[in-house]
Design a protein that fits this description.
By secondary structure, this protein is α/β, with parallel strands linked by helices. It has a single domain, classed as DsrEFH-like (Hypothetical Protein Ychn, Chain: A, 3-Layer(aba) Sandwich), CATH 3.40.1260. The chain has four helices and five strands; from the N terminus they run βαβαβαβαβ. It has a five-stranded parallel beta sheet with strand order 4-3-2-1-5, sandwiched between helices. Strand 1, helix 1 and strand 2 form a beta-alpha-beta unit. The two termini are 24 Å apart. The relative contact order is 0.24. InterPro entries: DsrEFH-like, Sulphur_relay_DsrE/F-like.
């Protein structure tokens, strides 16, 4: 069965919990051949700064099959340029709109 999930991080202190949730989920699904998983992480608000810290960089590096999105509005507010983000991170214009679109496309919403 194909499952789609979007994790939402908008608080800097939620990076660790979200990273662990992603790790646990991906590890489990890897042991169940009939399960297929598509994971996207949308980061906005103050949590955008996590991409510049070890936790954000490690989370992105450890999960190459997971797509990571960064809210452009949050980046502007925190004076972050795209070249400061890990290379795998995709910038989206508005994080909240991204969440709306993903949920409309059938993604389950998780906010740790």
């Amino acid at each position: 069965m194909r499952r789609k999930v979007v994790f939402h991080i908008d608080e800097i202190d939620q990076w660790q919990r979200t990273s662990q949730n992603i790790h646990n989920l991906c590890d489990y699904v890897a042991t169940v051949p009939e399960e297929q998983l598509q994971v996207i992480v949308v980061v906005n608000g103050d949590a955008i700064q996590g991409y510049l810290q070890a936790i954000g960089e490690q989370t992105v590096a450890q999960h190459p099959s997971v797509k990571f999105h960064a809210c452009h509005n949050a980046m502007q507010k925190h004076h972050i340029n795209g070249d400061q983000l890990p290379a795998a991170v995709q910038i989206v214009p508005v994080g909240v709109l991204d969440l709306i679109q993903l949920q409309a496309a059938g993604f389950a919403y998780i906010k740790p």
